Every structure is written in C-alpha cells, then in structure tokens.
Amino acid sequence: MMGNQIRRFFYSVCLLASAALNIFLVRNVYLGDEWKKQKLSNWAEEAAAEAEAVALISCSGHGRAYLDGAVVDGKPVCECNTCYGGPDCSLFSPDCAADALRGDPLFLEPFWMQHAASSAVVVAGWHRMSYTFSDDSYISQELETHIRRAHAVARNAITKGKYFIFGGGSTQLLAAAVYALSMNLSSTAKVVAAAPAYPLYKTQTDFFQNTRFEYDGDASLFKNSSDTTANLIEFVTSPNNPDGNLREAVLQGPKVRAIYDHVYYWPHFTAIPAPANEDVMIFTMSKFTGHAGSRLGWAFVKDEDVYQKMQSYIEAAEIGISREAQLRALKLMKAILQADGREIFEYAYKKMSYRWRKLSDILVLSERFSIQEIPPLFCNFFERVRGPSPAYAWLKCERENDTNCNQVLRAANIIGRAGSAFNVEDRYARLSLLKTDDDFNLLLLRLGKLISEDIYTI
Amino acid sequence: MMGNQIRRFFYSVCLLASAALNIFLVRNVYLGDEWKKQKLSNWAEEAAAEAEAVALISCSGHGRAYLDGAVVDGKPVCECNTCYGGPDCSLFSPDCAADALRGDPLFLEPFWMQHAASSAVVVAGWHRMSYTFSDDSYISQELETHIRRAHAVARNAITKGKYFIFGGGSTQLLAAAVYALSMNLSSTAKVVAAAPAYPLYKTQTDFFQNTRFEYDGDASLFKNSSDTTANLIEFVTSPNNPDGNLREAVLQGPKVRAIYDHVYYWPHFTAIPAPANEDVMIFTMSKFTGHAGSRLGWAFVKDEDVYQKMQSYIEAAEIGISREAQLRALKLMKAILQADGREIFEYAYKKMSYRWRKLSDILVLSERFSIQEIPPLFCNFFERVRGPSPAYAWLKCERENDTNCNQVLRAANIIGRAGSAFNVEDRYARLSLLKTDDDFNLLLLRLGKLISEDIYTI
Predict the structure, then answer these.
(1) Per the omega criterion (within 30 degrees of 0), is the bond before A267 cis?
(2) Pairing mode, if any, of strands A280-284 and A256-261?
(3) Cβ within 8 Å of residue B28, ≥6 positions away
(4) Within its chain, how far is the Cα of A396 from the centroid?
(5) What is the percent of chain B where pLDDT is above 90?
(6) Greatest CA span in chain B, whole angstroms?
(7) Which of A162, B34, B293, B379 is the most exposed place for a label (fewest CB within 10 A)?
(8) What is the pLDDT of residue A39?
(9) Could you tell me which CATH number the domain at A141-336 has?
(10) Which residues of A touch B318 (CB under 8 A)?
(11) A65 to chain B: closest CA residue
(12) Number of C-alpha atoms within 13 angstroms, CB side, residue B216?
C-alpha cells in the first residue's frame, strides 16, 4: 500500500518535473527560433521600437514628438502646437496670436494617429536607390493605381484616358504646366487667374518669368478683350482659394488654355457636383491626406504633348520625385482604401463642416464682419445635398472705415492673410480653417471676443 | 522513516508544481504585458513585419523585391538587375547589352543590405504633415547637423560659417544657384563649364533660359577673352564628370562666379587633397550614400544674399523638400556615423578602386582604347597616398577611323555615353562604373571580348 503510494508520488513527481522541463524546453526552443529570426529577418524591429518609443512621448495633446526632432537627454523633444509650450506642451500662452495664416492641413493629424498601424511604413536602407523604377520611369505604378482608385471612391475626377505625372507638391506642377502650355507659341503667353486668386500663381510665375510667359493679373479683365490673338493661360481654382467657390474657366477661345487647380476638389471641402474632367487637372497629398510636408502632387493630363513637356520640366528641374515620399504615399493610400475607402472623406467633411458651423454661429452675431455664402449642393460622393465645409473663411469687413480687414483682425490678435495678396481689396482677409484643433479653437475664442466687444461697444 | 520520505516527496512535488506554476505565470504575465503593449504602442510591428517579409523574397542575388513593387499573387515581384529575368531573377540573357549609360549609384546597395537594422526607419502616418518644421524652416536641423558631421569625418569640405540648403537632388540646386547668381546683373550672364562637361548643365540651363542667363558652352573659350565686362557663371565639377579630374575654376575676375559641383568629392571616387572651401558647393545623397532615388541634395553657401535667393528659388519651385526623404536621410547618416564613421568610405573606395583596377587590367592589353590617367595623390581622409577610384571611365578610341567611340562600343553590345554629350568629340565615350556588380561584371566581360577579338584580329 505504502509502496504504491510512493510509486504514485514518484510518478507524479516525474510527470511534473517532465512537464516543467517541457515548458522550459518549449520556451527555450521558441526563444531559440526567435533568435534565428532576429539574425535573418528581424532587422526592422529596432526601427519599429524606436518609432513607437517616440510616439509614446507625452505632449499633453498639444503637440507631438518626431523621430527626427531635436534631441534632449537622449530623446526627441515635444514640438508644440502654436501657443503651447513647455517640455510637454502643457503651458498655454494666453497672449499668443491666433495664427490662421497658412493652409497647413493639420486638421487631419488625429485621423492618422487613429490609423497608426495601417499607415506606418518601413523604409529599408536599400529601398529604391536608383534614379528610376524598373520601367525606367520616375513614378511608382502601384501608387498611381492607388491614387486613381482613391479618385474613383471620391468620385471627384475622371482619370481614365489621362496621363499621370508627379511633381514636388501641386506647386511644381503649376509651373510645369505653365512651361508646357507656353512652349512654341507665337507670342508671350499672359498667365491669369480670376480674382480673388491664390497668391502663388503670381509669385511663382513672376519668379520664373521668361520670354514665353508673364503674369498678367485678373482673368476677368481679359473676358471681353477685343484682342483675340493673345495667348492666354488661365489658372482655374475650383473650389477657389480663398473663397471656396466652385469655378469654371472665365476665358474661352482657341488661344486660351486652362490649368485646373483642383487641390481642394475633395468631399472634405466641397460638394462634388460631378467628377472633374478637364485637360489639365492638378491635385496634391497636402489637401487630400493632409501631408503637406511630403511635397507630392500629381496631375492628370489629357494631351500627350502637354504631358511630355510637363515631364521634361520635372526632369530638368530635379529628374524625378522622392521615392520615400512615393512609398509613404502608397501606404497612406492603402490605409485610405481599406474597407470601402469612405472613412477619410466622412472624417474630413465632418470636421470641416463642424468648424464652418462654429465659425458661422459666431459671425452671425456680427454686423461688422461677413463671410462667403456657400449654398447647399448635391454631392456626387455623399449622394445627397450637403452643406459647406470650406478650407478657408473669406472674411469681409463691412464697416466703411474698416478698409484693412487684416489690420482689424491683427488688433484682435488674429493673424489672417490680407485681401490684396489675393488681388482684391484689403477689405477682405482670409482665415485658414485647416490647422490643428488648438489653432481653430483659439481662432474661435479671439473672434468671439472681438465680436462680443463690438456688440457691447455698440 | 517512510513518513519522512512521503513528506520529502510531497514537498518536492509542491516545489515542482510551484516552479511549474511560476513558469506558467511568468510567461502569462509576460504575454499579458506584451498584449497591452500591442494595443498601446505596437502599431509599427505590422509595418516591420511587412518590410521584413518583402526582404525575404529571394531574387537569386540578381535583384530585389520592393515594398511598393508590382504585386503578383499577393506579394511584390522581384525587380531584376539589367540582363537578368524570370520570377526570381535567375535567368541571364546572354545577348543583353552591358548598360554603362547612367550614373546610377547601385554599387552601394550591398552596403545598405549589410546594414539593414541600423538604416531602416519607420515613417508614422502622422509624421511631419506640416509645410514647415517647428522653426518655420523647410530643413531638418538634426539632418543638417548630421550631414555637417559626415563632412567632418570625410574631411572633404569646410562647412563652418556657411549657410545650408536642401534641394531636389543636386540637380535642383544647380538651377537655384544659376538663378541666384544671375539676379540683378547689368547683362545676361553666360553660363559655362569647361569641356568635357556634365551634359545636364546645358540641358537644364537651356530649358530654364530667360533674359538673365543663357548657356554658352565651354568655359575655356572665355579664358583669354578680351571682353572683361561679361557676366560669367562657371560650373566647376570636381572631380569632373566624366573624367574624374580634380578641377579649379578656369575663369577668374570680378564678374565671374563659380558653382562648385562637388557631388563626387568623396573618398569613394577621389583623393581628397584638402577640404573644399568654396563660396557655393553642391553635394547630394546620390553620390555619397548611393540614394539617387531620394532626390536630396544640399548646398553650402558662403554669401547670405546668394543663400537667400537660392532659398527663394526652392520656395517658388516647390516650397520645400520632402520630409520623408529628410527623415530617411537622417537615419542613413546616423548609420554612417556609427563608431568612427569611416566604414562607408572604406567600403566605397575599396569597391570603386577594385573596379578601376579590373578595368585597367583589361584595357592595358589594348592599343585601340585608352582611359584617363589619374595620378596617385595624398588623401586627407586616408592620410596616405592613394590610387584612383573614379565614378566613370572616360574612354578614348585611339584608331584614326574610330571617330565615334560609342558606336564602336555599341557594336560590341556595350552602352556608353557619347563624347559629344560632354561637349567634346565622339572619339570619347563615358562608361559608368557606379552600377551593380552584375552591370560591372558584364561590362568587363564585353570589353574583354572586344579587346581580345581586336588582338586576335591583329
């Protein structure tokens, strides 16, 4: 009896010892395997860990640390939103100006933070070192395909049967198009844009001016011109920067060529009445995914000759566009096109229309200021009538004496952009609605204060 | 006695069970912790796994798959080196031409594959979406600092006290410098470069020609010019493309300005007699780390006014340079600067001087062809006299009848670049030595065949 008991105990012990050993061995083998993987293929783990560590640096929701930020005590510092400071961005500067100057599309930053896993990409040390892709082009075919798909989801452009080209942001493609459209003409082309117009058209065209083209101001002034022999190149910005209006070319005729700047033609900012189908259409990551820093724009071009000339421009300027920017854009497109691909448009529209409503709610109280009216319109993407969600508020100072609206704003500690930059009177000013939540909230606060003081004063 | 034994067994069992349980618990807690990390911060793991999976795709050592390559059966296909094909790049095409046309710096690809872990970088979805860095510039200060450090290690440039600017490859900076140096002059500047000269100087200057500057050919023709009132801008390429010679400006005088194209001024390609210390010096990732696809060049500029104007050029052209390219370049610089930072220079010099020796060994047998002579020279980096390791062979066809050297090469199934592209006679041709081992080996094979046939024929 006792002998049996001992045997039972003995077996139990053996079993347990064995089980323990099993666990030990399994673990060991498992780790051993891991170690092999480490040597063979885990070269990207360190980069992943490094990126994750930086993402965990807390900046109080008013900033973020970047992998390539300034390093203090061995780790990158927080880079704070405007008006926030301190090591963790927790200090608000009450007297700081509400900066609504630039069209920096940071309103989409939270979207990408929420889609961290699907949008992250590893650049290997040997990734695409060559000048060209394997088809001798400077363009990732995969990326082109995904961008065309994104347009198909947004229903904002007919891309079929059109050539595709990348540029350093839409900026470089605007210049490339002017060069291409002004080649082999009998006279210097006049480059024009209906006022109010995006200031870069003038500054860029002036900077690169040569005997083939020159900037000549407001397109409307050429509308009823008796001179039908002049070569004209019209920038058509639709929706327009600054006022968000959908536009058609002002000028028509055999000697008129149009460059459609459609960078804001996304459900984020406007109803899409119909897919755009122009001869030269320009888009950019900046106003679609919010990645202004990528400097990656694209154009759809109907005419092969114009396309070839634009390509020659990019090649003469810098051979091709960054492979890193293209790889990253592809990952962003893949993240966007997950499921039915509608999420980013719904997110962006919701956010921008919210901002517009908040702004309108404040401005409706004021007789001193007005903003542009954007009528509700049927949207091809949402398949319903939808309200406004523009990228900018185009503010007008209504008082006789307020001839410089931007100065009025500046006195209230708000930084806008003066109407004269857009080739109209300074009674107008542009306010960017594209920036961070912090920027927008401060803008609302300052505008609210300005308007309530006005009402109180009256 | 038996009671004691039972107790002993009992305790042993408890101990073992406990130990087993401990192991179990430790593992469980550990995994539990991992799981938490997964949710909080393991967003980059998927990207790492994806990149590693692509790197494991076997292309027989004659190609590689890229993350953004064409996808077949759910994974990116192999992109094969020239003359290799098939799904795994194992098929050699015996009749395929040896392509030595372009300066594609793929000779450094194996270096980066060997440094996979230290050179990989994760781009987060929200990485630097803004147009600007937090100091309102378009330039990563961290990257600038690391690039200056790399120059200090290479001892190839005095960067202190000089302004720094990025461009889309050296290409864009060449144009930016021409624009900057030709502003506010009394007459159209003549842009020149001593022959043989890099063809892009002419094609680019012609493309962007305006009333302020025009390309005017060989700098040497202006050397003893009686017209001392002409504004001249000289491209000085040192070491020179195509012939690898170290150069000084041909032209001197109060109306002459020089743009030093120092993209090959690294220990890879030349002895460094002394650190360069010119007013306008241009470098690029392409010929330093081998990343031509990044389109990231930089300039050091002594004069603030010239620097400002070059900056205006970049801003008018495309606002700034890709943040992805800058982030990746920073990671590459960090990898390079590990330990004493000398490894890449030693690797590159060893490889390029090996190629030069192999080529010389073949050409020494020939009376039909000659290549440039590059004398041994003391090198500031290696601190000793060192032999040649140029980026290109500058081939001369010595026979009276061989007036078109490139045609002679073409007949032997070798693709070079004709001398006339470099503004000299077609008796010369350039062969790129910068490409993959496969490219170089095929070039050697074809040249060897051509030369041995000549000898046999004679």
Answers:
(1) no
(2) parallel
(3) none
(4) 26
(5) 88
(6) 121
(7) B34
(8) 42
(9) 3.40.640.10
(10) 167-169, 171-172, 295
(11) B127
(12) 18
Q: Which residues contact A31 (CB under 8 A, 6 or more apart)?
A: none
- Taking the C-alpha atoms of residue B389 and residue B376, their distance in angstroms, rounded to an integer, is 10
Query: Phi-psi category of B322—alpha, beta or left, where left has phi over 0 and alpha has psi -120 to 50?
Result: beta
How many angstroms away from the CA of A327 is the closest CA of chain B?
A: 6
Look at residue B106 and give its three-state secondary structure.
helix
What SS3 state is found at A299? strand
Domain B57-96 falls in which CATH fold? Laminin (2.10.25)
Q: What is the pLDDT of residues A30-84, one digit of tens each?
A: 444 443 344 447 999 999 999 999 999 999 999 999 999 999 999 999 999 999 9
DSSP letters, A83-134, are: TEESTTS-EE-TT--EE--S---GGGHHHHHHTHHHH-EEE-TTTT-SSS-T
Q: Both tokens of residue B419? A: 């001398």
Q: Which tokens is B10 given?
A: 């009992």
DSSP A64-85: EE-TTSPEETTEEPEEEPTTEE
Query: Is a pLDDT exceeding 90 seen at residue A166?
Result: yes
> Does the pLDDT at position A346 exceed 60?
yes
Measure CB to CB from residue B116 to each of A124, A317, A331 and give the nearest one.
A124
Is it true that domain B99-110+342-457 has CATH number 3.40.50.2300? no
Helix (H, G, I), strand (E, B) or coil at A137: coil
Residue B158 near residue A363 (C-beta atoms within 8 A): no
Report the amino acid identity of residue B166: F
> CB B321 to CB A295 under 8 A?
yes
Count of beta carbons in the 10 Å neighbourhood of residue B7 = 10
Q: Reduce the DSSP state of residue B87 to 3 states and report it.
A: coil
Where in chain A are the domains?
2-44, 98-105+342-457, 141-336
Backbone dihedral angles phi then psi of residue A321, each to the nearest 5 degrees: -105, 145
Q: How far is A317 from chain B (nearest CA, A)?
A: 5
Specify the CATH number of the domain A98-105+342-457: 3.90.1150.10
- Can you read off the two tokens belonging to residue A318? 């810098």
Instruction: Identify residue A398 by its one-letter amino acid code.
Output: E
DSSP annotation of B194: P
